[in-house]
């Protein structure tokens, strides 16, 4: 079993290191006011692209808005991952943009599904882990006491962002079983969407270069059309690189659509 008390000192030092990264700036990608100024050009599409843009045409009758990890630990200043994701969440206006997507999808009568991320005590005993898994387990992101209890869940980092609860907890939104790494292979999201005769996915949430990209790749392999909403996703900024930029490059290569929130909402209003 995961002993939270024994890990608290290590978590505190780990979080302090993460805060230090944010405070000193990310020289590879820029930070603070400089990043706010540079971001629009830094993330802009190439002036002379070699690849054609995706040709996906949204049909709300066979589409779903899939939101990955709309949880406090990723999207709130009170969240455990905020020191490394907060800048990206803020500069792309992810929270208000997701709110607009939820509202537009509900108004259009489109299927809405949530692919959450939860860790239980035994998940902390994994013997095989990648770098981001180690980070998440050390910091305690998305921790829950168990799958059959909500003790300590409400208001915790694993809970949904309060702004989204009116959409997520309306009795109509599909809340899937948790994914454990990055893609939907280990949860019931593909099954739930197939049962709704969905074959188009509008994808948003966190993290752009990990869970969003992994969901995108898996659904493309399964034959779905996938559009990513580029200003409703965000990612960490580590010295290793800007996760948002890494994802954006790959979405230009493979997504059937790479849309803004404004474009997506306009499409839904026409349905």
Automatic annotation (TrEMBL):
Domain Isochorismatase-like: 63-255
Highest rank taxon of the organism: Bacteria
Keywords per UniProt: Hydrolase
A Pfam family this chain is assigned to: Isochorismatase
PROSITE patterns named in the record: TAT
MF (Gene Ontology): hydrolase activity
Protein name: Isochorismatase
Species name: Microvirga aerophila
């Amino acid at each position: 079993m995961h002993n939270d008390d024994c890990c608290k000192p290590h978590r505190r030092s780990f979080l302090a290191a993460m805060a230090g990264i944010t405070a000193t700036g990310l020289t590879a990608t820029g930070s603070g006011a400089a990043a706010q100024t540079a971001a629009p050009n830094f993330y802009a599409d190439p002036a002379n692209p070699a690849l054609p843009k995706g040709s996906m045409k949204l049909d709300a009758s066979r589409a779903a808005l899939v939101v990955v990890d709309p949880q406090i630990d990723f999207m709130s200043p009170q969240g455990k991952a905020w020191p490394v994701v907060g800048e990206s969440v803020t500069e792309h206006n992810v929270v208000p943009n997701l709110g607009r997507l939820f509202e537009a999808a509900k108004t259009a009568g489109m299927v809405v599904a949530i692919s959450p991320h939860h860790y239980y005590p035994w998940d902390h005993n994994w013997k095989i882990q990648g770098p981001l898994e180690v980070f998440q387990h050390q910091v305690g992101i998305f921790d829950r006491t168990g799958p059959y209890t909500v003790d300590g869940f409400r208001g915790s980092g694993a809970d949904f962002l309060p702004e989204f609860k009116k959409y997520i907890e309306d009795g109509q939104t599909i809340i899937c079983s948790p994914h454990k790494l990055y893609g939907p292979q280990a949860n019931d999201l593909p099954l739930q969407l197939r049962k709704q005769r969905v074959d188009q996915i509008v994808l948003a949430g966190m993290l752009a270069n990990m869970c969003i990209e992994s969901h995108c790749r898996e659904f493309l392999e399964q034959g779905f059309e996938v559009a990513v909403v580029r200003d409703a996703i965000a990612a960490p900024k580590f010295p290793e690189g800007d996760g948002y930029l890494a994802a954006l490059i790959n979405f230009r290569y493979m997504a059937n659509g790479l849309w803004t929130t404004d474009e997506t909402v306009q499409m839904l209003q026409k349905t």
